[in-house]
Amino acid sequence: FRLHGSAAEEPHILLECDSSALDSLQKHLKLYKIRRKVAISPCPELSLWAVIPGEQPADASSLPKCAHQALLLTPDPRAEVMGWRLIAKKGANLSEIIPGSQVGDVQDYHRHRYKQGIPEGVKDLPPGVALPLESNLAFMNGISFTKGCYIGQELTARTHHMGVIRKRLLPVSFPQPLPAPGVPEGSEILTEAGKRAGKFRAGGGELGIALLRLAHVNEPLCIRLGGDTVRLSASTPQWWPKAAAK
């Protein structure tokens, strides 16, 4: 997020990241600043909130906010269904920033994004394993096809322009209660005929996200856990571009 209002101001950029990747991200950024006058430091005094829309999403400009308490209140850049990102100082009164709001817990947030098929963090997007296009980052303002010179740029651009993407991250749901302790991350997903359809990435309760071959999305799917067969179904998110699932 860009915090400075104009080019005349000192540039201030706020990066949001998975907390488990904080140290590695700082080391990576410091490796490339190369004698530039750039200060890179964490902001433990700030707290991050997701403002999830109700049944009738409102425009961000209609959100009441207290400028003194909210450092940033902006639409989530990934997808409209994710609402807004709110960054405020720890201890800020959220009921004053967004009157009438209800405070949920982090599991409410994860359930919402799994239902929408929005990946986030190192569990859903394992570093060195997840490919940007298969992870739908092109749908979420996560890839630039005009900016060159980044690792994997040639492969990503070529795959995009050829339009052949056989696997994608998709929301999945389990119609029946799961055996304890749930479905392990990385579990192989099979079709009824026993063909490999993909892998389960992560989830919570009866919802999750999985990397699946698009050819098998509409087929009955299952995961074999010991002696149990756990059935699941996949769906194509409504917020995707119309031709994305082809």
TrEMBL record:
Classification via InterPro entries: CAF17_C, TrmE/GcvT-like, YgfZ/GCV_T_CS, YgfZ/GcvT
Residue ranges occupied by any CAF17 C-terminal domain in the UniProt entry: 166-242
Entry GO terms, CC: mitochondrial matrix
Keyword line: Mitochondrion, Transferase, Transit peptide
Pfam families: Beta-barrel_CAF17_C
Gene Ontology BP, a term: iron-sulfur cluster assembly
Gene3D superfamilies: Probable tRNA modification gtpase trme, domain 1
GO molecular function, one term: transferase activity
Keyword Transit peptide on entry: yes
Location in or out of the cell: Mitochondrion
Main localisation: mitochondrion
Record PANTHER family: TRANSFERASE CAF17, MITOCHONDRIAL-RELATED
Full protein name: CAF17 transferase
Annotated organism of origin: Elachura formosa
Species classification: Eukaryota, Metazoa, Chordata, Craniata, Vertebrata
